[in-house]
Design a protein that fits this description.
Order of helices and strands: EEEHEHEHEHEEEHHEH
Distance between the termini: 37 Å
Strand order of the largest sheet: 5-4-1-6-9
Number of domains: 1
CATH superfamily: Spore Coat Polysaccharide Biosynthesis Protein SpsA, Chain A
Largest sheet: 5 strands, mixed
Strand content: 15-25%
CATH class: Alpha Beta
Oligomer: single chain
Helix content: 25-40%
Number of helices: 7
Shape: globular
CATH topology: Spore Coat Polysaccharide Biosynthesis Protein SpsA, Chain A
Radius of gyration: 16 Å
């Protein structure tokens, strides 16, 4: 299957729902290997990340691919056909995270209330945590919802639709971090426990550490 920049399918618009944008287009330069292809349990990270997003209360899930797109898409398996999922290729992925963020926003359904940006490298993140962020947003729909792991803010972050124009103007590899700093009064931090749920995988050392907890979590 070749991706040209058009989504594979277009879910029916759901007014007021939250879109999930799963960003898996990066080069994984620190790891030297596509994070999405790392194995956790008996499945690649791409499948685990998609399963959690698709099982959550997100109205739609947009998968943004770039580097090694066809290999990653192949490992997604039958999840490619899920009715909530659309897939898009970011041809500018080498220019930084902001390009994937902007690419994902182009596929958000009209009338969405907000967008949750998932970085796709948090193997311990669950649909339950995603739902906790969505429910916090429903109670405070003008806020930027940021999870706090211990005392440390992390991902995924949920932006109200009113921020889409500002997000579309981002450049480079900064993502939405600078926007959060500028609009800190609009931020609502949501405590998430345990802190390890927010761990991401940037190095092989990270991978070995997270893999041990992932195995224990899924055997309990």
């Amino acid at each position: 299957m070749e991706l040209t920049g058009q989504q594979v399918k277009e879910p029916k618009p759901t007014t007021g729902s939250v879109a999930g944008i799963l960003l898996l287009a990066g080069l994984s330069s620190r790891l030297g290997f596509p994070k999405a292809l790392l194995t956790f349990g008996n499945q690649p990270l791409i499948r685990h990340a998609l399963l959690q997003a698709l099982d959550s209360e997100l109205g739609q899930v947009i998968l943004v691919l770039g580097h090694k797109k066809l290999e990653i898409l192949k490992r997604a398996g039958d999840l490619k056909q899920h009715p909530k999922l659309s897939i898009i290729f970011n041809p500018d992925f080498k220019e930084g995270l902001s390009t994937s963020l902007r690419t994902g926003l182009t596929q958000v359904n009209p009338g969405s209330a907000g967008a949750l940006f998932l970085l796709g490298d948090q193997p311990l993140l669950t649909a339950q945590v995603i739902n906790k962020l969505i429910r916090a947003f429903r109670k405070n729909p003008t806020a930027i919802i940021v999870p706090n792991y211990g005392e440390r803010p992390g991902n995924p972050v949920l932006f109200p639709a009113s921020f889409y124009p500002q997000l579309q103007r981002l450049s480079g590899d900064s993502g939405g971090r600078e926007l959060i700093k500028k609009c800190v009064r609009r931020v609502q931090f949501i405590p998430i426990r345990p802190q390890r749920i927010g761990w991401d995988v940037d190095t092989w050392e990270d991978y070995e550490k997270v893999k041990k907890w992932f195995t224990g979590l899924n055997q309990s």
